[in-house]
Amino acid sequence: MVYAVIAAGGVGTRMGSSEKPKQYLKINDKPIIVHTVEKFFVNDSFKRIIVLCPDQWINYTRDIFAKYLPQSERVNVIKGGDTRNETIMRAIDFIEENDGLDDGTVIVTHDAVRPFVTARIIDENIEAAIKYGATDTVVPATDTIVESADKKTISNIPDRSKLYQGQTPQSFKAKLLKQLYYSLTEDEKNILTDACKIFSMKGHEVYLVDGEVHNIKITYPYDLRVAKALLDEEII
Amino acid sequence: MLNTVYRLTQPRKIEIAFKEIDIFSSDVIVRPTYLSICNADQRYYQGTRDPKILSEKLPMALIHEGIGKVVYSPDGAFKPGEQVVMIPNIPVESDEIIAENYLRSSKFCASGYDGFMQEYVQLPSDRLIRLPDGIKPEVAAFTEIVSVSVHAISRFDRFAHKRRNAVGVWGDGNLSYITCVLLKKLFPDTKIYVFGVVERKLNDFTFVDEAYLTSDIPQGLHIDHAFECVGSNGSQSAINQIIDLINPEGTISILGVSEYPVSINTRMMLEKGLRMFGSSRSGRADFEKAVEMYEKHPEIIEYFSRMVNTVKPVRTVRDIDEAFETDNRKSFGKTVMKWEK
Fold first, then answer.
1. 3-class DSSP state for residue A227?
2. Cβ contact (<8 Å) for A44 and B340?
3. Cα separation, B280 vs A177, whole angstroms
4. Distance between CA B194 and CA A58 in Å, rounded?
5. Which CATH number do you get for residue A82?
6. What CATH number does the domain containing B66 carry?
7. Are residues B247 and B321 in the same domain?
């Protein structure tokens, strides 16, 4: 079974303020999170689409899906965790409780604020996760990445040809991910930036799926403007 | 849903655009799987159409020959995963006399409207035809051009007198090949002759009764009716040769597209009392008949599979460019994109 795990982080709570989490802002008259979930909704590989959000946004998110995706029995909105990986673990727990977990259970984890993800990226994630156990979606780095240990001077400039920018989805065999995560020490957990790192820390290969430059993450107001501009190009 | 559309913005330049799809509209959502390049697409891509037409129609997603997999069918008319052929002609009215593909109001994908080079294609359910299980997808991909031939043959059957001892097909390209295959199946008692200019290509018409070079036609050869599948600069000489060889009261079916007006020998046309009719595109009934023929005569698929020159997996815009360049270099056959974009 394959599951989509949509991480809708962000905790801004003030109604009508610019602090509202970006996934609830609208592009083309529809919340970004709905655009994102629709990409998974039309793909019949997914048994469920599990949307995880902060406690205080659960009802709001459910209301949104009731409005925009009224036939969305496959969409389950549940409470996320304190960190991204805790959020993913909650999704795995939810799957285990409802459908059971086996070696073939695959989760495709995705940012709620990446609505431009494509069918190809999703399909290749599923395929690669089944085959390799773990995948990350990346695009080649275009900017030179500079490392600074003291935040004042350059300590290293890594070879750009070996660098990629991580996007999502990141996809995994759920049972394996869970085993690896709970085998980490607290110190190890504290230095995790994402779920792929769990695999690489434990010596497992993570397969790369080609992303798309337009699979942008809408984080800043600037990104929202870019997203709207991409849609405004619609001519025909 | 934000659908990714791959549009030709200017010759040889494909750019990504996004178009909202309302997944709860009454239309079916299809994920394209195999898309076939037609000469019309190639003319847009290479920029050989009139600049005025190009500026009117671009940007536009190309491709009007293709199949896909149903991903969402709101009214349950199709099941997810079903393989379907997509009909690019979209009528907005019906007429008891005029066929859907001749109504000036009809929309046509990849001619003024976005074609199938998209992440998802949304079409009314009557614009989709279910394909038989196990059919070769790279052949089913060009069912549209098969349906164009079916359409012209059906009209020929309506218009032409019943003496059909010999029918000539002019042209040694894809449309001619398809038309010859179909004519042999639909009119088994009729002798089918093909007339072309490239011997190597004519040699592939193994199933016709005779294949002739247009420069070397035996004295005294006559035909009752003819199909012109040449087009472009060759239209004129083909049509005039048909007029010379056809028996009186014969019917000539014109299928080749020419960008320029064509001069024909009207004196002889009048003297022989000939009938000439044009056909363009096709409608649902023609697609249904094409698919029915695949099921009834599976050997057709084998003949058509010989037309598949290249199956190019497409994951990037560069792959699309390579598919079009490969197609541009071929002398015969179809370039099919295995659409994974």
1. helix
2. no
3. 57
4. 70
5. 3.90.550.10
6. 3.90.180.10
7. no
Residues B123 and B164 in one domain: no
Q: Does B291 reside within a domain?
A: no
The single-letter DSSP state of residue B96 is S
Q: How many domains does chain A have?
A: 1
Q: What is the mean pLDDT of residues A14-27?
A: 75
B79: closest chain A residue by CA: A44
Tell me the residue range of the domain where B27 lies.
2-142+307-339
Q: Across the interface, do A236 and B60 touch by the CB < 8 Å criterion? A: yes
Average pLDDT over residues A175-198: 90
How far A42 CA sits from the closest chain B CA (Å)?
A: 6
Query: What pLDDT, on the 0 to 100 scale, is given for residue A235?
Result: 43
The DSSP letter of residue B118 is: B
B310-328 pLDDT, tens digit per residue, is: 999 999 999 999 999 999 9
**Does residue B293 lie within any of the structural domains?**
no
DSSP 8-state class, residue B233: G
Quote the pTM value: 0.92
How many domains in chain B? 2
Whole-angstrom distance, CA of residue B28 vs CA of residue B22: 10
Please state the rounded mean pLDDT for residues B286-294: 98
Question: Which of B304, B309, B319, B314 lies closest to B140 in space, CA to CA?
Answer: B304
Q: How many distinct helices (H) and strands (E) make up chain B?
A: 11, 19
CB neighbours of residue A73 within 10 Å: 8
Mean pLDDT on B289-293: 98
Closest CA to B195 of B164, B233, B230: B230
A interface test, pick of B2, B35, B339 with most A CB neighbours within 10 Å = B2
- Closest partner residue to A43 among B7, B16, B71, by Cβ? B71
Are residues B156 and B75 part of one domain? no
User: Minimal Cα–Cα distance from B71 to chain A, Å?
Assistant: 6
The reply to whether B110 touches chain A by the CB within 8 Å rule is: no
Q: Are residues B125 and B192 in the same domain?
A: no
Q: What is the pLDDT of residue B259?
A: 83
Please write the tens of the pLDDT for every residue from A86-131: 999 999 999 999 999 999 999 999 999 999 999 999 999 999 999 9
**Which chain A residues contact residue B24 at CB under 8 A?**
70-71
Residue range(s) defining the domain that contains residue A134: 2-232
